[in-house]
């Protein structure tokens, strides 16, 4: 397909027309969670009204669904008929009403019957609150439910298969250019109520039996449990009945209606569209290994749940989450389960394995025992994220996932948790928006980090013994943190005392170490990156470990300290090689040192073998230095001097920490210092580039070395490394001339990016055609990343049009946009596009809030006052079109721009002095100059 700006203008002409009557209330997905500045709608009801009471409890559901994936006589396409019968009971006396939840459905009839004698219970007119989505069924005057008696609630209704990837929704794939429709589900957190009336909170566990009336032979159907019966229901349709599920929460029910095929072995099967069956073997093989490993680790085999004799994992073309743990029918984005070695990168392969591990772990931590409510989501997601790394490591020990965990989970959690807007792991939620928002880095990453911290304290074997007891004792139940603490305390009486404060208090401490001749003093204060002079007095139980030489990094069992200040006595302390706190970054805190100690650490890092400092502590030092500088705790000049050691670093974990820190710093470098910063980047990456080389990975190289190459090549090429750029462009030209010989997957991101950056519109159209014709979701992601490197307004506009069109699926739109704005040279072009085409962008993404989100993510990266002024003028002129919420959001984004600008100006002298000195050849002497480091630090440490 030949692509041009005119082509897209014609393609989307209807969109602009439709916009005139556009009134969608869909919520935009955050493009960058840290910069998602949209104002959350205030609850329009009392908070407690969003929750059901505990008067009535369900015990069993019988559900029949009849979907229409095309229009039939008297039936609209993408609707479904439903019939649900819920067995309920109460243990209370005098219950005079029944509350449950429904959404986006039309109830055509309902009744309440006492099961023992089939007598109809007299009721009054139902009451429905569209805001809380609670349906109240009042009983007739003087009528109450009898305690411990079963009643049957029956509902007949018509539902909608929307395209927003929630509830029972519609998706599609292309076959010979035509859409093939299918139906799938996503019920977490609060969307089962779109498919059937239910008690849609995780604590209301019940059994479910599902029947689906579907067209045959066009469609096959799948659900949590195996099929027990299938019989013709009417001409061209079959009624398929699935086995009764174990007792579980409504959000775990799942079903798929699709022309799928299955690849199965050993009670596991991978479901996918027929054209993707050649991409399912890896996930099947890896899934079988991971299930066996988790069976053994938890010592509660998946197959011991009698209703679950098999596990299916399905690849769904449109999927809002990364994957979902529905018991027995796990669902995934295609990119997170479909793999082919010739079209997927090594990192994508790891992503698939770890996501599978995460979802399989949920079969215990989430499905078998379930968080009672979303305020303790971490009981589900923290464990699954922990297993994502440490269970996968059981079957893939060469991937060094234990090391990756530190940078990807510990350090990433700290980013969000250093903001005043963070929240504790256990945190009240009520509304749907609040329930959705709690699924964040705190519940996932911090949850996993705190579990790892306790594992090292209790020792791995004791920790595992306690977890096994926790699972067995709470099987089929809903749980609160106290259930976990009780299990841990049985094996270590201090477990709860040390763990609970990390779950109920937001944030984490900065631990400051000062030295004297007789030892070291440890003090703690909450770390808030944007508020270094705050007065928050929160304290945590500190897990302390330390090393003074290369031989002391292996023992990571901490001693917990419960005081604000603590002394570590050590004879002749002033003569130690260095003092490094928090071995292998097991504890969840940052560390700052006095000037003398930073000087010793700097000397060690710049010495042979980095002074024996453990690779994870090098990664810790890198991350801490970037963030202590960002938080005005350590001067930027000092931090950058010490970090010059990276010129000799050859390990992945410290480089990944460095890339994360440099990404943030690059967005705050003054525009006039960009050239100096480029010199700095090319210098510190020079040896790393010579180490990894522009080449495909060898069969014997370490997996993390392959990952390091991808980062090094990306940064080198982005900043104009001549050899990198030349090699990447040559490889792109070769691929352009002969598309049948593909670029190695582990080189594609940099080759596609540099080929588009340095290429022509013909190259751009060539790669776009590869996107349109690719059968691989992982390859399409790599192409979107590459096309985001376009540098002209013409090509940026084509790309932005594509993102707003249906050519880029909804699930990929936000990432595709992020790929563009991560290239700072595109920002003025993106700003101009959004101002000229805001109607197209709003229609393509669901609402004008998406326009606000796009502007805010752009403003977070922008360094141009004139561009800021243009955006400000635009929103004033178009206030009525944007709407108040979007207008207010962009105003917040403009305020954030000013905050970022103030940060840049406040730190510019320090940073530019370092960069100028380095550009003039002086940095080599600076970083070894301990006395200079001391002088720069001493006042800051005293002030802190």
In this structure, how is the largest beta sheet organized?
A: 8 strands, mixed
- Pick out the low-confidence regions: 1-40, 923-944
Number of strands: 30
Q: Report the end-to-end length measured between terminal Cα atoms.
A: 61 Å
Helix count from the secondary structure assignment: 32
User: Which structural class should the secondary elements be placed in?
Assistant: alpha+beta
Assembly of the depicted chains: single chain
Strand content is 15-25%
Q: What is the general shape?
A: globular
Q: What's the pLDDT, averaged over the residues?
A: 92
Radius of gyration from CA coordinates = 29 Å
Instruction: Record the strand order, biggest sheet.
Output: 5-4-8-2-1-11-14-13
Binned, the helix content reads: 40-55%
Enzyme class: hydrolase
Active site: 359
Domain Peptidase M1 membrane alanine aminopeptidase: 282-502
EC number: 3.4.11.-
Features of the shown structure:
single chain; 944 residues; alpha+beta; eight-stranded mixed β-sheet; five-stranded mixed β-sheet; 43% helix; globular; disordered N terminus; disordered C terminus; protease; EC 3.4.11.-; signal; ERAP1-like_C_dom
Can you tell me about this structure?
Helices cover 43% and strands 18% of the residues. The protein has 32 helices and 30 strands. An 8-stranded mixed beta sheet has the order 5-4-8-2-1-11-14-13, with no helix packed on it. Strands 16-17-18-20-19 form a 5-stranded mixed beta sheet, covered by helices on one side. The chain has a 4-stranded mixed beta sheet with strand order 28-24-23-30. β4 and β5 (119-120) form a beta hairpin. α7 (401-417) packs parallel to α16 (652-666), α16 runs parallel beside α18 (703-718) and α18 (703-718) crosses α19. The chain is an alpha+beta fold and 944 residues long. Its main location: membrane. Residues 1-28 form the signal peptide. One of its GO terms (molecular function) is zinc ion binding. Zn(2+) binds at residues 358, 362, 381. It is found in: Cell membrane.
């Amino acid at each position: 397909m030949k692509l041009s700006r005119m082509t897209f203008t014609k393609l989307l002409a209807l969109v602009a027309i439709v916009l005139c009557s556009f009134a969608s209330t869909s919520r935009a997905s955050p493009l960058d969670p840290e910069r998602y500045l949209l104002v959350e709608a205030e609850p329009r009801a009392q908070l407690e009204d969003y929750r059901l009471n505990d008067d009535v409890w369900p015990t069993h559901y019988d559900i029949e669904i009849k979907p229409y994936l095309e229009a039939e006589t008297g039936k609209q396409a993408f609707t479904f008929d439903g019939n649900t019968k819920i067995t309920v009971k109460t243990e209370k006396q005098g219950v005079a009403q029944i509350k449950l939840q429904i959404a986006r459905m039309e109830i055509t009839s309902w009744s309440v019957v006492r099961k023992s004698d089939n007598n109809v219970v007299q009721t009054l007119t139902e009451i429905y609150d569209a805001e809380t989505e609670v349906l109240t069924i009042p009983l007739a005057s003087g009528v109450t439910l009898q305690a411990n008696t079963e009643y049957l609630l029956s509902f007949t209704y018509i539902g909608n298969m929307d395209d927003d990837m929630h509830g029972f929704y519609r998706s599609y794939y292309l076959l010979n250019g035509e859409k093939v429709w299918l139906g799938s589900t996503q019920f977490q957190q609060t969307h089962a109520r779109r498919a059937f009336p239910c008690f849609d909170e995780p604590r209301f566990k019940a059994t479910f039996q599902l029947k689906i009336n579907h067209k045959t032979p066009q469609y096959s159907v799948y659900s949590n449990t195996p099929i027990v019966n299938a019989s013709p229901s009417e001409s061209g349709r079959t009624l398929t009945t699935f086995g009764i599920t174990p007792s579980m929460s409504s959000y775990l029910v799942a079903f798929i209606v699709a022309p799928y095929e299955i690849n199965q072995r050993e009670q596991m099967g991978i479901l996918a569209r027929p054209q993707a069956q050649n991409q399912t073997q890896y996930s099947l093989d890896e899934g079988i290994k991971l299930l066996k490993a988790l069976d053994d680790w938890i010592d509660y085999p998946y197959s011991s749940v009698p209703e679950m004799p098999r596990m299916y994992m399905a690849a769904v073309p449109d999927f809002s989450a990364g994957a979902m743990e529905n018991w027995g029918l796990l669902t995934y984005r295609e990119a997170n389960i479909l793999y082919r070695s010739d079209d997927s990168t090594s990192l994508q392969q790891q992503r698939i394995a770890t996501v599978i591990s995460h979802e399989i772990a949920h079969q215990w931590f989430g499905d078998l025992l379930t968080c009672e409510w979303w305020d303790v989501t971490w009981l589900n997601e923290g464990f699954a994220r922990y297993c994502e790394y440490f269970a996968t490591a059981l079957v893939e020990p060469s991937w060094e996932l234990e090391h990756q965990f530190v940078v990807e989970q510990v350090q990433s959690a700290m980013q969000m948790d250093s903001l005043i807007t963070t929240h504790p792991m256990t945190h009240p939620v009520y509304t749907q928006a609040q329930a959705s928002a709690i699924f964040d880095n705190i519940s996932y990453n911090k949850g996993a980090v705190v579990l790892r911290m306790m594992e090292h304290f209790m020792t791995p074997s004791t920790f595992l013994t306690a977890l096994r007891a926790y699972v067995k004792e709470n099987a089929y139940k809903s749980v609160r943190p106290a259930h976990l603490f009780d299990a841990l305390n049985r094996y270590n009486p201090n477990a709860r005392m040390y763990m609970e404060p990390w779950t109920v208090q937001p944030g984490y401490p900065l631990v400051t170490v000062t030295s004297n001749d007789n030892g070291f003093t440890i003090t703690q204060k909450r770390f808030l990156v944007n508020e270094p002079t705050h007065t928050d007095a929160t304290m945590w139980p500190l897990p302390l470990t330390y090393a003074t030489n290369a031989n002391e990094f292996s023992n990571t069992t901490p001693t917990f300290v419960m005081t604000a200040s603590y002394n570590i006595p050590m004879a002749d302390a002033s003569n130690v090689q260095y003092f490094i706190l928090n071995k292998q970054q097991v504890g969840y805190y940052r560390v700052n040192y006095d000037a003398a100690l930073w000087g010793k650490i700097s000397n060690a890092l710049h010495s042979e073998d980095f002074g024996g400092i453990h690779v994870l502590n090098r990664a810790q030092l890198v991350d801490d230095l970037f963030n202590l500088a960002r938080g005005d705790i350590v001067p930027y000049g000092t931090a950058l001097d010490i970090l010059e050691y990276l010129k000799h670093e050859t390990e992945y974990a410290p480089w990944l920490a460095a890339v994360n820190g440099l990404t943030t710093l690059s967005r705050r470098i003054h525009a006039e210092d960009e050239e100096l910063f480029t010199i700095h980047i090319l210098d510190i990456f020079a040896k790393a580039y010579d180490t990894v080389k522009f080449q495909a990975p060898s069969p014997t190289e370490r997996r993390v070395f392959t990952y390091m190459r991808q980062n090094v090549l990306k940064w080198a090429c982005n900043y104009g490394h001549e050899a990198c750029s030349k090699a990447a462009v040559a490889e792109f030209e070769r691929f352009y001339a002969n598309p049948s010989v593909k670029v190695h997957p582990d080189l594609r991101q940099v080759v596609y990016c540099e080929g588009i950056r340095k290429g022509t519109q013909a190259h751009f159209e060539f790669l776009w055609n590869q996107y349109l014709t690719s059968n691989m979701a992982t390859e399409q992601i790599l192409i979107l990343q590459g096309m985001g490197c376009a540098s002209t307004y013409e090509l940026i506009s084509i790309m932005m049009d594509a993102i707003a069109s249906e050519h880029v699926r909804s699930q990929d739109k936000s990432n595709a946009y992020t790929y563009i704005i991560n290239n700072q040279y595109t920002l003025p072009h993106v700003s101009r596009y959004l101002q000229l085409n805001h109607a197209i962008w709003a229609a393509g993404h669901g609402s004008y809030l998406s326009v606000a989100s796009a502007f805010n993510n752009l403003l977070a990266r922008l360094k141009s006052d004139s561009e800021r002024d243009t955006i400000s003028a635009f929103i004033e002129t178009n206030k009525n079109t944007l709407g108040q919420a979007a207008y207010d959001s962009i105003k917040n984004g403009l305020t954030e721009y000013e905050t970022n600008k103030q940060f840049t100006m406040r730190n510019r002298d320090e940073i530019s002095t370092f960069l100028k000195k380095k550009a003039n050849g002086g940095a080599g002497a600076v970083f070894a100059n301990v006395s200079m480091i001391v002088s720069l630090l001493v006042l800051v440490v005293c002030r802190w």
